[in-house]
Amino acid sequence: MLNFQNAFSGRVPPSKPAEQLLLALLLNYDTCGLKALSACLYVTPLPIPPMPTRSLLPVFRLALGAGLLAASLTAQETIKIGEFASLTGKEATYGQTVHKGTQFAIEELNAAGGLLGRKLELVSEDDQSKAGESATVVKKLISRDKVVAVLGELTSGRTLEAAPICQMAKIPLISPGATNVSVTTKGNYIFRVCFIDDFQGTVMAKFAYDSLKLRRVAILSSASSAQSVGLAKYFHERFTAAGGTILAEQKYGEGDKDFRAQLTAIKASGAEGIFVPGYYAEAALISKQARDLGLTVPLLGIDGWESSELIAIGGAAVEGAYFSTHYSPENQSPAVVAFNARYRARWGEDSNALSALAYDSAMVLADAIKRAGTTESAKLRDAIAATKDFAGATGKITFDAQRNPTKSAVVLVVKNGKFAFLQDVNP
Fold first, then answer.
1. Given 58, 75, 92, which residue is the final one in a domain?
2. DSSP string, 288-337
């Protein structure tokens, strides 16, 4: 290797043509350029003695251009995968849990060598649990970060904001938990790894009628959530079709804190149970206020209840409540046991439906990239659509023509301050 101290001092002249050219390049470049080039060569910039060799400037420019191109190619060596989630705000426990599942998948994939000879880079954005923010951060992921696909969001409303943007850009989007039926109707680049609301609403109606033997119930849903509105509709249809009666249907708005007026009307109706298709923050407060009003009937919820905050906020009021979800770490299938053990070793806690779905969304994408042999958007989209019998943490995943998976659900009950597995419900 050329000794630059000696070469510059003239004590040891460069002997090889390549060394002579390199020295000439260094001596004819300005200080900033020298620093940049020498940094690439792991040498320390030195004072430049006057030594005009202007004839080599075109060569230097060519070499500099090649160096910049090489640096650009190096920067692009990772495969960038975008993620958007509610990392802060009122539904932060959702986003943080989902992020753990996604990050865990990326870590495992990179530990196994990455994909297509390249490492994966997860680019995460926080939508702050705010309406409208998802569109902003997804545009950023696509236009600035140049991600090859987007993972997210967990909630239906925020996924519906992002889906048209991904569809227009022809960037595949895979949602871990957006269950609203209309999500995948936004275009053929939109996928999900969770069951959909018509199935979840049917599951809870069937559970209420067949397992709990309820015949007269009430529904308390969010008027401002597409998911909640859809679930209320599907529950109503299935429960009444089975022979049950809906005695009252009450509404609330996202972020409401006082539900006493609605609960008072439900109590007056004589309902034997209450179906609350909402998120954990409102569900916990509804449970507390229902018990305060003397309502002791069973409370039934959805996957949006699955957060440790439900118990932290609701306390004893949520004890005995039931909700449907996608996965339980208590399931003793070999795949679930193995996944949960690895997850616990990484994060020091059990997995849940949200982290498992997020993990599956990343792994389904990775499987498609491998099969496609490229990250080119159209070929990647086709490979995702062709996913069949993929063995995920939450079960086997095969996409139908609408890019929805056919999967079973589980019903959990809050027991002794924990979520306990109760039963499987198949499609």
1. 75
2. HHHHHTT--S-EEE-GGG-SHHHHHHHGGGGTT-EEEES--TT---HHHH
